[in-house]
Amino acid sequence: MSRQDHIVHGFKATLVARAVYMLSSALLMFLLARYLLDPDGYGTLYWVIGVLAILQLVADLGFGKSAARYFSEYSEKAPGQIPHLIRTTITVKIVIITLVGYTLLVFHERIAIGLGEPTAAPFLAAGVIYITVFSFSTFTQVAFQGFNRLVYSAVVQAISGVARLVFAVGFVLMGLGALGAFFGYIVGYVLSAAVGVTLLYYKFYTQYEPATTYEDGLSRRLLEYSVPLTATRSANVIDKQIDTVLVGVFLTPTAVAFYTLGKQISDFVLAPAESLGFTISPNFGEQKATGQLERARQIYETSLTHTMLLYIPATAGLVIIAEPLVTMVFGTDYAGAVPVLQVLAVFIVLQAITNLTSDSLDYLGRARSRAVAKGGTAAANFGLNLVLIPTVGVVGAAIATVATHSVYVAVNLYIVHSELSLRLRRLGRSMGLICGITGVMALAVLLVTPLVSSPLMLIGAIALGALTWAILAVASGLVDPRDVRSAMT
Known about the structure:
GO cellular component, one term: plasma membrane
Structural class: mainly alpha
Pfam family, one: Polysacc_synt
Organism: Natronorubrum thiooxidans
Main location: membrane
Subcellular location: Cell membrane
């Protein structure tokens, strides 16, 4: 199988899994918000998940991503070291998770009271299990990425999404409320972690004949490389979750529900970009190791152009249809999420670039540079949230996210350019064409949106925009129908 075919195959598997995960997440979001929980319960659930995501930082650090980098490298040059690497990584994770879990169990009530949400104490107590199983579920996905076995990553991700949906809805219907939904998340991650660890053991740990000796200094390098990755991951999680936590601290659970809903819709739209970035990133490490940087540049430029061709028009359309989309799908109780979603539409474009770029920089060995950039913008995001949430309200959190992430994306692109020498003039022409397509498509959607008065008409407006985009994308030469048909087969 050629490298291009391998990338396409991996992208298909990842995209299908991501589609299953996001569709199940979207259905769960819809059922919880529309029928099963009130805005307060919905906001409390995702506020707790945001708090636990920050605590998860200490439990995960950067060992998973660091291990994936060395899995990618040593599976080619010294496969006998793989069992040693797996054993070291899992041992370190178990020790750290045990310490974090014990601390959370002891202080969960104090944490809840200190953050102004004493009713969240039972969630935080159950969070000990959540942190453990979530950690191993995500670690195995990243590990399989390092081995460039993306189908396995896809399986683990799809299981977590479907199981969360089934058990969260089931527990809420049993009368357990938001806490029941939280336990549904836990069961979903228990199942996906179990499958992931089993695959890792039987497909990789036992399949590589261990070297008689552990390469001198390898465990030290594994830990050292985890330091910048820990910094980047910490900054990334804080950047994504601290705004949700602060909205809950300064405002109300209902405000958290509005903000969370906007972010969840954004995440749903971002699924293809995340899948593509997850798929192509291991190839950059392999190609740098073999000196094939020109090929790496071609892959990145093509991926970036196609990603922007999808996301710039899509987010423009999302801004236009945000109000009927939110009120018709989730109900008028969530109308407060409309301005949040419209601001976060800009973030969708920025995050699409980040999803394509960030993992690639890790595999190119530029984790330290990315960590510095992410740390600086995360600190700025935290400061802006402290200023804007109390003064502007929930929309202030969205503004802070867009402002600081713009800087981070610019730095990421600069680092990629320094590594791959991107052809900026060629990329500029492509971006100009994409903006032109976006303008025409947006005008078509804008003209029909005032007529939208039912979900069926909303679907029609979206279909009109998609048709306009497809015709212009093909006419401009940015999309070749033959390539689309080839990728689908």
